[in-house]
Amino acid sequence: MPELRQNFFTKEWVIIATERAKRPEDLATHRPAQTVPSFVETCPFCPGNENKTPPEVMRYPANASEPWAVRVIPNKFAALSSEAQPTRSLQHLRRRIDGFGFHEVIIDSPDHSSAMALLPDAQVAKILGVFKDRYNSLSTDQRINHVTIFKNHGVDAGASLQHPHSQLIATPVIPSQVRHRLHEALRHYDDAGECMFCHMVEREVEDQTRIVLKSELFVAMEVFASATPFATHIFPLRHMASFGEITAAEILNLARMLRTLLAKLYVGLENPDLNFTIRSGPSDYVGARHFHWYVSVIPRLTRVAGFELGSGMFINTVLPESAAEFLRNIKVDKAVGTGASAKL
Ligand SMILES: [Zn+2]
Ligand SMILES: [Zn+2]
To answer: 291 C-alpha to center of ligand 2: Å?
Structure first.
């Protein structure tokens, strides 16, 4: 029997189509293994080609005499311009803001071939540390209202360059999808006097069926009303509204969990294209009691079709509980995460 499930945060309904249910392994890409070189002479993100990108915003380590491990540059084809000013105008019903904002690229490592799933945990921790630095630094700009940090891995997820990288877009407005979640969280806090994310995480940990990974600081779980197969959220167990509040110990712990989850997807679904996003409250939400940041990992295994476009309602053909069980059982090869150029 198919089932409709409601997303606790957004109140959106999805159809879990058990009649058309697929086994999780049916969604594996079955892509032939590709050998990617660790250096490509024409790649603007490879070491030695730094002059092919706009001047860097920051590098890690900061000392320019050492080789960089993570590098941040302005996006050459930026969606928004830091040269503009967020000047607003309203003519009849047409509201506009000049295209102000920041669009940066975070180059994950000097290695052209290592997707984040294959990097050592320590390197992922460096990347997350750079995310935090950029998040906090851009958040101090009074003209910025929201910072979105994300990764596009693979062509179907929107990546146009093969060298593994992440991105950040800082906007002068809070996007409506984020605003909607903030409103729902505030409504729940008003009704129940608690953070709805803390409540949900506690119940999910008790229930166990959708949990993929758990540490003393974070938990990764399949989403109960997942719109697409294998949508996985990682929550900090400590209540925090803004990603900018993450501590050094939490960065190390999250790096291990995020990398392990990506490796499980890499092995289990044969390197699927995917996006991940850090869904954080705006920076001035530090200390807010009603919102809770998390990482949303969405493999791009299915296409959005007419029903989804026409209704905003998704049909998911994989039971989240089966997806969780499948991911729990994936053994991540020891070569993954050690920096060895594992070709799986
Ligand atoms: Zn490269
Ligand atoms: Zn919370």
So the answer is: 6
Q: What is the pLDDT of residues 200-225, one digit of tens each?
A: 999 999 999 999 999 999 999 999 99
* Low-confidence stretches of the chain (pLDDT beneath 70): 21, 333-344
Q: Classify residue 263 as exposed, middle or buried by CB count within 10 Å of its CB (0-12, 13-18, 19+).
A: buried
How much distance in Å is there from the Cα of 36 to the middle of ligand 1?
Answer: 10
List CB contacts of 59: < 8 A, sequence separation 6 or more. Answer: 68, 70, 71, 72
Tell me the pTM: 0.94
Span from the CA of 225 to the centroid of ligand 1 (angstroms): 38
CATH topology of domain 3-329: HIT family, subunit A (3.30.428)
Query: How many Cβ atoms are within 10 Å of 28's Cβ, its own excluded?
Result: 15
Dihedral sign, CA of 299, 302, 303, 307? negative
Domain extents in the chain: 3-329
Record the tokens describing residue 279, joined without a space.
Answer: 């869904």
Residues with Cβ–ion distance below 5 A, ligand 2: 195, 197-198, 239, 292
Q: Which residues contact 19 (CB under 8 A, 6 or more apart)?
A: 1, 2
The dihedral through the CA atoms of 109, 115, 119, 121 has a sign that is: positive
